[in-house]
Amino acid sequence: MAQRTAVVTGAARGIGAAVARRLAADGFAVAVLDLDEAACAPVVAEIEAAGGRALAVGVDVADEQAVSAAVTRVAEELGPPTVLVNNAGITRDNLLFKMTVADWDSVMGVHLRGSFLMSRACQRYMTDATWGRIVNLSSTSALGNRGQANYSAAKAGLQGFTKTLAIELGKFGVTCNAIAPGFIETEMTAATAERMGVSFEDFKAAAASLIPVARVGQPADIAAAVSFFVSEEAGFVSGQVLYVAGGPKD
Ligand code: NAP
To answer: What angle, 0 to 180 degrees and rounded to 10, lies between the N-to-C axes of helices 114-129 and 64-77?
Structure first.
């Protein structure tokens, strides 16, 4: 079988970088997408050093033209993208009365508009191949989280988006699932600690004390779940939301 191509957005660091490395290890050619193309280079170099194929592509996932150009470039230079991981994300936390329209729009833009544009651009390669896998990064914040009206609405929205794509694309051999991480140790959670004026170590310890498995998550924990959803044997699993949070959530 020809090597399949996976696209991972927001893959220059954090969860996206771990997913890119994991999918390369699983045998996929991997397009490493992020706002800054140069920032993707270390992940691409790591994948190539391990014997894999990868391509760095700079793109703002909320920009329709840029998404279209990026996906075309991936198809031409790496192969038709039949796996898509919508991972790019931002936070603009604030209590509702202080949240600006810009805070709201930018979070909706990256998570919802971005996942929509990327999925729409990639789906034709999947339906042409009668095989495809889409994985969307939701969050436990979808269940509600103080100071995150924008982010939790976007992450809950991604769950509805996921279920709808599963229904529409299933007959073409395409599955769509969501992963809802709990606390994962990345620059995103480090920035939250800084914003709250606590050291990252104290912030992680406080989070871990509330997590049944008694530790915070690592990017590799999420990459392992993505690896399952995009695998051949997961073809009968679609429209699901998997909470990867060290304990039950609902
Ligand atoms: P991260 O370390 O902040 O990485 C996110 C990446 O996305 C960054 O490289 C960022 O680029 C990129 N990005 C932002 N806006 C983009 C855009 N418009 N187009 C393309 N790329 C863009 O975040 P993370 O912690 O790895 O999170 C990854 C995903 O998991 C996000 O969707 C997040 O909401 C979700 N998640 C994370 C946690 C957690 O605890 N960390 C929990 C639940 C869900 P720049 O650096 O240039 O901004």
So the answer is: 30
pLDDT at site 250: 76
Query: What is the percent of the chain where pLDDT is above 90?
Result: 99
Cβ < 6 Å from ligand 1: which residues?
9-10, 12-16, 34-36, 59-62, 87-90, 110, 114, 137, 139, 181, 183-184, 186-189
Question: Which amino acids are annotated catalytic?
Answer: 151
Q: In the chain, what are the domain boundaries?
A: 5-182+219-242, 184-216
* Whether CATH 3.10.180.10 fits 5-182+219-242: no
Question: For ligand 1, what atom is nearest to the CA of residue 181?
Answer: 43
Kindly report, residue by residue over 117-174, the tens digit of the pLDDT: 999 999 999 999 999 999 999 999 999 999 999 999 999 999 999 999 999 999 999 9
Question: Rounded distance, CA 134 to CA 115, Å?
Answer: 10
Question: What spacing in Å lies between the alpha carbon of 35 and ligand 1's midpoint?
Answer: 10
Span from the CA of 89 to the centroid of ligand 1 (angstroms): 4
Residue 21 and residue 47 in contact, taking contact as beta carbons nearer than 8 Å: yes
